[in-house]
Amino acid sequence: MENIRNIGFIAHIDAGKTTVTERVLFASGTTHKLGGVDEGTTVTDWMDQERERGITIVSAAATTFWNDCQINIIDTPGHVDFTAEVERSLRVLDGGVVVFDAVSGVQPQTETVWRQADRYRVPRLCFVNKMDRMGADFGRTVDMIRSRLKGNPVPIQLPIGTDSSFAGIIDLVEDKALLFSGNGDGKHSVVSIPEEYKEEADSYRDSMVERIAETDDAILEKYLDGETIPVEELRAALRRATVSNKLVPVLCGSALRYWGIHPLIDAVTHYLPSPLDMPAAQGQHPKTNQEEYREATVDEPFAAIAFKVVTDPYTGRLVYFRVYSGKAKGGDSIYNATKGQRERMGRIMRMLADRRTDVEELKVGDIGATVGLKNTFTGDTLCDETHPLLLESINFPEPVISVAVEPKSRADQEKLGDALSKLSEEDPTFVRRFDEETGQTIISGMGELHLEVLVERLRREFGLQANQGKPKVAYRETMTEAVTAEGRHIRQSGGRGQYGHVILKMEPLERGSGFHFENRIVGGTIPKEYISSVEAGVKDALQNGPLGSYPVVDTKVTLVDGSYHDVDSSEMAFRIAGSMGAKDGMRKGHPVLLEPIMEVEVVASAEFLGEILGDLNSRRAQIRNLEAQGDTQVIGVFVPLAEMFGYVTDLRSLTQGRASSSMEFAHYAEVPQQVTQGLLRR
Ligand code: GDP
């Protein structure tokens, strides 16, 4: 197992992630033809739309082999509208390769994925791609990794030449130079470091060794004594430092020319962790809530996480999973601890993008897919029924934007429902609901592009033509003051009555905490069997807040008291009482509207700074940072999503097309009073 690497390539869109992935698969012999994103023939960008739009949307897993290593690659999207894809891949991979465009260096989405990778403590390597482009700058990119990403980069390579003169790489670990041939076969000749690069290479090498020594006592001793440190020892120490997130090795190359790919794969095998390097998988017993651990060995009971569900036109429902301990065979009966259900696996397979090979079993450290699981969804834990555990699920943000869709013909209404439910099964950040009031189907997601792509998939994959309304902001409501509330549902005239009575304490929680329910009934003032009905009633009420019927979030509800009746009490009566109580509490607790705030970055020629800022101001923007890079100006702001519809077009006309912008969800914040009034009057 020490020869398995579960890795992902992560990057800002257009940095060259797809090209790098493609070259790696080719170099290791998994594909026999070099694809090119520009011609739309890559293996990992397998959905038609991805090919056309030139972006990677759905992560596909691919397995490949290099020397003695099995490398499982999980492809991740670069566009932040597809956050769910990034989250789920980071949850299951052990190491990441962050791809940079050597001209632009660190870009906003690199920052986002870097932060996500920090959260999951994913060890990484950096690959500074596009060294052949005009304006490429290796040193500046390394500086930006340090200053903007707060990483601890240590170059283990240096480029020989840049842009049109880029010709090779100096390998600082082995103290030699690799010169590429121009014929596109990816091969290189190994030579000693050219005279004119000696001095620079020596100084970089010295600082590399020093940085490694800082993390390792044995190396430090030798370094201080002025001894030469054998390559193997240096490599082993750098591996330990990378795996423990102390250092991030930096490499460079040009994926387009197929230069620097072989050394990159070597570095993946040298420095990124194997499943053995990872701490034991941690979870809880589903019944007793006791902490459970699974060491990464095949002798432990089976435990895996389902990280992706795809509906495939040929095989049906395909569930991707990563095994943390033990093994599973095709046909095995396994236990879905999240759902509390037994399921039977069908065929088991390894994936090469959309092609698959059947295998007999998948074991600890492996990533693969299976058919036959009916009730397993993204984030669910699959395990051995006699040793159940729940692994930590995947963290998904709430959708921030929604749009109404309706089928062009009435007859398609049912088909639309089916199709949407399939799509939302695949993508946890895509939610659909039926609005009783307006009779419309509402779909919500992470951004305009996200929803556009989904509507497009309805057309292509399900043959459904749908009209869509204007995108709307997904507002929320919350309370701002703690209150005590009461719900009484008592009808006792004639026949069997109804009796439910609750007293609730309701209080605001920190942003992003969601909803919490606590039961503090003692001595049976309300019998146990009715407690879950009260909770269900409270949840019903919080679906529609008192201001604009938006869902209520960041609220804690504690059931503190109440009363019951021996004959007249029922689950329904307590559900209604719970709902009435929560409604009462929300009204009293000074409710406010919350809106999604986006983090927006605009990059433009400095001459437009005034116009751009003026326009952003009128959109209620809050400036985060202004940074001049030569003639270009980088403007970072927080802006409410409500003000950002159509921004790309407006920015284009403001700057004659000489600016670019990116936007992603940051957090929810209170809507200012005046704006709220305007909104609610509509
Ligand atoms: P992704 O969005 O990160 O997956 O990036 P792609 O792999 O789709 O690449 C984006 C664009 O950059 C494409 O037009 C590629 O041909 C181009 N590209 C990728 N790698 C290189 C490189 O090393 N040098 C140059 N000059 N262009 C590259």
Q: What does this protein structure show overall?
A:
The longest helix is centred in the C-terminal third of the chain and has 18 residues, at 571-588. The chain is globular and about 100 Å long. It has 16 helices and 38 strands. The relative contact order is 0.08. α6 packs across α7 (217-224) and α12 (531-542) crosses α13 (571-588). The chain has 682 residues and is α+β, with helices and mostly antiparallel strands. Guanosine-5'-diphosphate binds at residues 11, 13-19, 37-38, 54-56, 78, 129-130, 132-133, 254-256.
Keywords, separated by commas or semicolons:
682 residues; seven-stranded mixed β-sheet
Ligand catalogue: guanosine-5'-diphosphate
Number of helices: 16
Q: Strand count, sense and closure of the main sheet?
A: 8 strands, antiparallel
Give the strand line-up of the largest sheet. Answer: 18-17-23-14-15-22-19-20
Unreliable stretches covering 5 or more consecutive residues: 50-59
Ends distance: 61 Å
| Shape label | globular
Approximate helicity band: 25-40%
Q: What would you call the structural class? A: alpha+beta
Beta-strand content bin = 25-35%
Radius of gyration: 28 Å
Q: Averaging pLDDT over every residue, what do you get?
A: 87
Number of strands: 38
